[in-house]
Design goal:
The protein is an alpha+beta fold. The chain is about 35% helix and about 20% strand. The chain has three domains: about 200 residues, BirA Bifunctional Protein, domain 2 (2-Layer Sandwich); about 100 residues, no CATH class; about 90 residues, no CATH class.
């Protein structure tokens, strides 16, 4: 089990995030403790008001919203009753017994996980101390619960990143998908799950799902101002519909934010280089084999290649998207022998031959995305950074033992 605790200043934003998931059909509110009625009888305002009643008992506590995710291995057998018991046990162990809390079960990832919403202001107005809650309480509770409930342990796994694997995405279809919601779902999932180190590499992933990030052409105001928009693509790879500003998407995947991710992703993806090299090297360039055979070999291994050829057929760029490890590499990043020029020489690509056909990555096409849920834009913006930190549990370092993690400066407290 992997536990992540995020503290913030907006209970409304946290509730809006989870309630939107419920309205979209990707989550369910399965338990509510400390409320006048059962979970299925509570409205959004009922939930919000109960938390606010506690928080108003001590105005001096500014950081008073607690959002926790508990993530389990996909092999763990967990019904709703067991998830509720684990949630209650965990909160008691970290000192939140007698606090009102809500449990949401989310279905937007391949691994089972729940989100807990509560407050650290007690009924008497005193505050639950959050200092070192991760090391002193959460980590101990996590280990105890793994043993008591027979869960797969987060530490000591041979393949640690298997425990948190992004759910299969759905390819957006222009005219059938609500544009902003479709783009937001895809972009946020890709940014959380994939490890890319440039806008070009990000687009190599996004294009699999009919989405593209656009910085604007050189010399345009958008490029000069470091702007970024996202658009849907038609079946021919052409931009269609109205572009969506990155700053208007929930989670704010702006160029400034992505630039910070690039450097971090360069480190995260390093352990997966050798796997991709092995897949490329496992193709035997025998007489009669064509470059198209090489492309098909990669696709069969769930590697999506982006081949850039000029009008004369010369390959001038290669990018590989490994959809198993969720890592993206330019050929030259893997090593000199994997650059576009070297691959072209290795497989004796004929410049006069027809350009390679890249089979479409095998994902379902969406017929209709859910409409936006709770229409409370201010709350979503206020809580965006808090949610982004919480959902970062989907990246590889979330299985790193607490004592090995480096502290980072964040708004609010992140454990």
């Amino acid at each position: 089990m992997v536990a992540k605790v995020i503290s913030g200043k907006t209970i409304r934003g946290v509730l809006s995030y989870n309630e939107n998931k419920v309205k979209e059909g990707t989550a369910a509110c399965i338990r509510a403790e400390g409320f006048p009625v059962m979970a299925d009888g509570l409205s959004f305002n009922d939930k919000l008001q109960t938390f606010l009643d506690y928080q108003l008992r001590n105005w001096n506590v500014k950081t008073n919203a607690i959002h926790i995710s508990l993530n389990f291995d996909k092999s763990d057998r967990l019904d709703q009753s067991k998830l509720e018991t684990i949630a209650d046990t965990y909160l008691n162990r970290i000192g939140f017994d007698n606090q009102p809390y809500i449990v949401y079960q989310h279905f937007d990832a391949a691994h089972p996980h729940i989100h807990l919403v509560t407050t650290n202001v007690k009924v008497d107005g005193s505050r639950i101390d959050l200092h070192n809650i991760g090391k002193d309480r959460s980590e101990i509770a996590r280990r105890e619960i793994e043993i008591e409930f027979g869960l797969v342990k987060a530490q000591g796994r041979k393949h640690p990143n298997e425990i948190l694997k992004a759910a299969d995405l759905t390819r957006a279809v222009y005219g059938k998908s609500e544009t902003k919601r479709a783009i937001s779902n895809i972009v946020n999932s890709v940014v959380r799950s994939y490890k890319f180190a440039s806008i070009h590499e990000l687009n190599a992933v996004l294009k699999q799902f009919n989405v593209i990030a656009d910085q604007g052409k050189e010399g345009t105001l958008k490029r000069e101002k470091n702007g970024l928009t996202y658009s849907l693509l038609d079946k021919n790879g052409k931009q269609v519909g109205v572009p969506i500003k990155s700053s208007s998407i929930y989670g704010k995947p702006t160029l400034q934010f992505l630039t910070g991710q690039f450097e971090l992703n360069e480190i995260r993806r390093e352990p997966h280089m050798e796997r991709l090299r092995s897949i490329i090297d496992s193709f035997e360039a025998k007489p009669g084999k064509q470059f198209q055979d090489f492309i098909n070999h990669l696709v069969n291994k769930e590697v999506y290649p982006v081949v850039r050829q000029n009008k004369d057929g010369l390959i001038y760029g290669l990018t590989f998207v490994d959809n198993t490890t969720k890592c993206v590499f330019n050929g030259s990043t893997l090593g000199k022998q994997y650059s576009a020029q070297s691959i072209q020489n290795r497989f004796k690509v004929d410049a006069n031959a027809k350009a390679a056909t890249i089979p479409r990555f095998s994902v379902k096409e969406d017929s209709e995305f859910a409409t936006a849920g709770q229409n409370d834009a201010s709350a979503r913006i206020e809580g965006a950074e808090m949610i982004r930190q919480l959902t970062e549990v989907n990246v590889d370092h979330s299985n790193t033992p607490y004592e090995l993690k480096k502290k980072k400066k964040r708004r609010g407290r992140s454990i």
